[in-house]
Amino acid sequence: MADFLVALAEFDRQRLWVQLGHASVFYYLHRDLKLSKGAAHYRKVAARLIQKFPEVVAPFREGKLCITTVVELARVITPENSEEVLPRFFYLSKQEAKAVAVEICPAAVVPRREVVTKVVTEVVTELPRAAPVHLDETPLTKFVQAAPQAVPMQAEPLTPNLQRLHTTVSRQFLDKLEAARKGQGHAQPGASAEKVIEAALDLLLAQQAKRRAEVKRPQQNPRPAKNPGHVTAAVKRAVWSRDEGKCQWPLDSGGICGSTLRLEIDHVIPRGRGGASTVDGCRLLCAVHNQLAARQVYGDD
């Protein structure tokens, strides 16, 4: 890909596509090379970027930059900021690159809005019907039909602090959301969907923190556990704090797994082998590595 983009940059610099009867390098890529319009656009932008900033070639070759992040980089890089900005796009996904680009050069402030759109599909399934909803700040509208499959949630950066959320929800979700908003009438008159959902998330996060034994006023002299294998709340708090909420499984290449999903308290020496339920005797592991640690000690059977 890097070789192709370097060659394309020189091809475009010499405007050789004119001799082939094309109005731009984009049409050459789309019509002669039969690339999709999206693929042609990405490569055109990358070729123009290489012409202005040859230093992007090396990161392309090393895999630090990918073709899908080029458009976002091209929007914000300048001769004055290239040395600082270019490394900020290394190893990013397309969505992450969008967020960085918006942080460097915020988009114009866009009015907040709340829109529920209809999704028409001929596929018949038993899954709950759902409709994409854009959460911002005007009254909810009614939706008619639903998508039979779950669609990943997507957030589109608008400014460093403002994003537009695109997701797919069920009819029951919208009913609950509207009921919750009406119920908040006294506490938060005219509350937007964002405010209602944020309030619900605060409650959920508080429950999760309680499971991690995170409390505002922990006991100064907690009682020792009657069961030696029990992990006390004080130990849980200390382990979560020390491990910074990340899986501590060591990688062969150095560092740790670092996952923040499905974390569990793991005994470094298993309880069945006499491991102590102390801060030093415990660590955070994701569910996958917790299972792997157990298999390494006890075997698959």
Short description:
The chain has 301 residues and is of the alpha+beta class. The chain is built from eleven helices and six strands. Strand 3 and strand 4 (163-170) form a beta hairpin.
Account of the protein in words:
The protein is an alpha+beta fold. The chain contains eleven helices and six strands. The protein has helices at 2-13, 25-32, 37-52, 57-62, 70-76, 82-85, 94-104, 171-183, 193-211, 233-242, 287-298, and strands at 115-116, 130-135, 154-157, 163-170, 263-267, 282-286. Strands 1-2-4-3 form a four-stranded antiparallel beta sheet. Strands 5-6 form a two-stranded antiparallel ribbon. Strand 3 (154-157) and strand 4 (163-170) form a beta hairpin. The longest helix has 19 residues, at 193-211. It is extended, with a radius of gyration of 26 Å. Residues 123-128 and 135-148 have low confidence and may be disordered.
Radius of gyration over alpha carbons?
Answer: 26 Å
Q: What characteristic shape results from the CA principal axes?
A: extended
Overall mean pLDDT score?
81
Structure classification: alpha+beta
What is the CA-CA span between the terminal residues?
A: 46 Å
Strand order of the largest sheet: 1-2-4-3
Q: What is the helical fraction, as a range of percent?
A: 25-40%
Number of helices: 11
As residue ranges, the low-confidence spans are 123-128, 135-148
Content of β-strand: 5-15%
Q: Biggest β-sheet, characterized?
A: 4 strands, antiparallel
Number of strands: 6
Secondary-structure element series: HHHHHHHEEEEHHHEEH
